[in-house]
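Continuing the batch. This is chain 6 of the set; chains 1 through 5 are on the previous pages. Same settings as before, nothing changed between runs. Recording input and output for traceability.
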Amino acid sequence: MTRRVLLHVGAPKTGTSFVQDILFTNRAALRERGILYAAERHDTHFLAALDLLDLPWGGLEREAVGAWDRLAAEVRAWPETAIISHEIFGRASRVQVARAMESLASHDAEIHVVFSARDLVRQIPAEWQENVKHRRTKTYTRFLENLQDPERSAEVAQWFWAVQEIPDVLDRWGEALPREQVHLVTVPRPGASPTLLWERVAGVFGIDPAEFGPAGKANQSLGVPESTMVRRLNLRLNDTLPNHHYRTFVRELLVHRNLSRRPGSPRLSLPPDVHRWASALGRSWVSELALRGYDVVGTLDDLVPDAALPFVDPDRCDEEQVADAALDGLAIMTRETARLRDVEIELHGVIDDLMGQLDRFHSTRSYKAKERLVAMSATNPLARAGLFAYRRLRGRNSRST
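Output for chain 6:
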């Protein structure tokens, strides 16, 4: 039987985390149906991507050493369908792609590349917001200038185009594969069924989308004033707050669980001149992709940008709205601080109770006798022999009494 290896390589901000959550949550049930999503922890494939791409990532790259080879070995050993998924795979160089293909190849393996894509006009604002959620402080204006620079000299531009330039990513990853084994999954237009994207991806993976449907909603985007507030917050926290605390309190608690759900905020879009530029570029991609013969799941029309939306500049937005978002953020953090303080007080009570039990135990006659025996064993051979015999009877190897 031909084994299928499905490499889902991006793009960021196209529902990839949403898909990975479903795969990870259902990995045991999928395995029973012959589909391997090899992941002992949620970031297994992310670490494998860091390793394959040799990417620095705030120290996580040290934890990632060997992760790709371990994942590839597990996939090679699996007799049926295996799925590998992370959005940063998209930036792999041709050399790194060749290594990945070689790692996964075997006489009975059929390798497929899957790439989910959304129109450029929606991707650009989403990518800036993702930067803000990862502690970046670059203004929206400067971000847009960097992306439009033909030299692509800024780090943010190099990253963006490496993972978002659809024809280039598919050319690198699909160069050695038959066109029917390169699958371009298009993200539906706004207003489509919220399950349609998953249905498209699941169809490529060979998964029943109804049986393994999403348990929750995909990540929602921030509004304009919320984005502005978080960017300004980054300016105040970046030199003082460690990454693990930022992840917990800012990105997860503040942004994902609260600010992204605030109603009524204007949504981030593109200024008219940038919209014209991005729309023209996106249409040129669609024309090129139509000639390549890839397996398109959805329709290339999904990648043609819609008309421009009203633009609200996050660098010059309504300060009253920003202040309201900041006050909501302060209220969220205050409630969390109070909750954690209650937990701390409760834990101190548990600790005090345990310390009291230890004190009472240490005051017993039997414990004091053992203490004297241990002290005597340091100088008295007879006491030392007695302590040795006692420990043998108790079956203990520790140095404690």
